[in-house]
Write a structure and sequence with these properties.
Layout (H helix, E strand, L loop, with lengths): L16 E5 L3 H12 L3 E6 L3 H11 L2 E3 L10 E4 L6 H9 L7 E4 L10 H6 L4 E7 L16 E5 L2 H9 L3 E3 L6 H29 L7 H14 L1 H4 L9 H10 L2 H18 L4 H6 L2
Parallel strand pairs: 1-2, 1-4, 2-3, 4-5, 5-6, 7-8
Antiparallel strand pairs: 6-7
Length: 281
């Protein structure tokens, strides 16, 4: 049974419609952003009807099976795990409307993930749109405003990105994995590094939150002035004695990461320091 739509989301002749399969963080954020821009969501599909029901109810849509998600809409969004994109595209394309836009949101792969549909449904418009933003909470769609995104496909994809407040750019297919690896370092690895800060802060008897202003300032300086200019600390000034003191007291489980990042800081500094290189080896 279809729930009552949110006020203003009942389709009219002038409103554009979309459906989504994969109501996870990214899919939910994009769906909410589209709804805020006047699009009307028709159907939501997931691993099961129950899995899709929550987002469907929030946006006044119908929860359905994957095969039905493309019925009667202009835009179909695949927000499944990367490994399921190709198979999902084949399933949803069967009942898709002629001329519909079929896109996925993955970062590690481009429009080639949809190539299997091209021969069976050449009347569909294929593309990919990967928001370069962390989407980890219920209000994540608000973070799309001003973020960048990798797009591939016809001009409609870039237009959709701009409509959502995103700044689109293109990535060559041969650079896709390198692009995604960079995104992982910029997001996931930074979070993992904050995990190390939290552990070391606990061992030092200092509140983790005490390091928040320092971390924010360092990131902002690196983004504004460039990493090499923003670099400070014992490595940048060749203070071997301080680094030796650090290595004596930090937990043995933290030493490998500390040394690896210190070596990277040394490379960034441009210093030719044999003693420091030996200490960090």
């Amino acid at each position: 049974m279809r729930p009552a739509p949110l006020e203003g989301l009942e389709p009219t002749l002038n409103q554009r419609t979309f459906s989504i399969i994969g109501p996870g963080r990214a899919g939910t954020a994009i769906a909410k952003a589209l709804a805020n821009n006047g699009w009307v969501i028709s159907r939501v599909a997931g691993r099961s009807i129950e899995h899709a029901q929550s987002l469907a109810e929030k946006l006044g849509a119908m929860a359905c099976i994957a095969a039905d998600v493309g019925i009667g809409v202009e835009l179909i969004i695949i927000a499944t795990p990367d490994s399921a994109i190709s198979e999902t595209a084949q399933i949803v394309s069967v009942q898709a409307e002629s001329g519909a836009l079929l896109i996925h949101l993955a970062g590690a792969t481009g429009v080639e993930a949809l190539e299997g549909v091209r021969s069976t449904r050449p009347d569909l418009v294929l593309g990919s749109l990967h928001p370069l933003q962390t989407l980890s909470d219920d209000n994540a769609f608000e973070k799309l405003q001003g973020a960048f995104c990798a797009v591939e496909g016809p001009p409609e994809i870039e237009g959709l990105a701009r409509e959502l407040g995103l700044t689109p750019f293109s990535v060559l297919p041969e650079n896709r994995s390198a692009y995604h690896a960079t995104a992982v370092v910029a997001s996931n690895h930074l979070v993992a590094l904050m995990g190390q800060v939290e552990r070391m802060a606990n061992n030092a008897g200092v509140p983790f939150e005490a390091f928040a202003p320092l971390a924010r300032t360092a990131i902002e300086a690196a983004l504004i002035s460039g990493p090499a200019t923003a670099l400070t600390g014992p490595v940048s000034r060749g203070d071997t004695a301080t680094i030796e003191a650090h290595l004596r007291v930090i937990d043995s489980s933290e030493v490998a990461v500390y040394k690896a990042l210190a070596r990277d800081a040394l490379r960034l500094s441009g210093r030719d320091d044999a003693a420091l290189e030996e200490l960090l080896s």
